[in-house]
Specification:
There is one protein chain. This protein has about 150 residues and is α+β, with helices and mostly antiparallel strands. It folds into 2 domains: about 30 residues; about 110 residues, no CATH class. About 25% of the residues lie in helices and about 25% in strands. It contains 4 helices and 9 strands, in the order ααβαββββαββββ. A hairpin with a 3-residue loop joins strand 8 and strand 9.
């Protein structure tokens, strides 16, 4: 009888510890992005994260997702929202996502309990002959989690 209570108590302590650890490190454990969102840093805005009810299974679907969430506008006062992820123009140059498809990178999440694919694309002015350095770094997981960050003057 005593062994049964000791076993139950041990199981409760282990479950409690796991819940505590998952509260401390939710991103590292459950992902898909293994770290919490990055805060504002010199020349870079904070990392914005969104969740969409869409699944991404290929690079073509990733590019189509970005096209569906592109907005008419420029980088002036740029702050991504769920409806406006990336602008369609930089200065006078259109962002051609079909052309940038060759730059898409596909990785597996590094979070412990997540093995989903992460599609990422860095859009920078080197692609458009811009006059000042900038970059948009966007990542989308298979399950529709989005991470986007804009840096300027880098």
């Amino acid at each position: 009888m005593m062994k049964k209570y000791l076993l139950i108590l041990t199981a409760l302590v282990i479950v409690g510890f796991l819940i505590y650890v998952s509260g401390l490190f939710p991103y590292r454990l459950f992902g898909p992005f293994e770290n919490p969102p990055l805060s504002v840093q010199p020349n870079c805005d904070q990392e914005h994260r969104f969740k969409f009810d869409e699944t991404i299974k290929s690079e073509n679907e990733f590019i189509q997702f970005l096209k569906n969430h592109q907005f008419e506008g420029n980088l002036i006062k740029y702050e991504p929202t769920k409806d406006k992820l990336i602008p369609d123009y930089i200065s006078q140059n259109p962002i051609d996502l079909d052309k940038l498809k060759a730059n898409v990178n596909v990785e597996t999440s590094k979070a412990i309990f997540s093995n989903e694919k992460i599609y990422s694309l860095k859009i920078g002015n080197q692609d458009f002959n811009g006059g000042w350095p900038w970059m948009i770094d966007i990542k989308v997981s298979e399950t529709g989690h989005v991470s986007i960050r804009h840096c300027a003057g880098i």
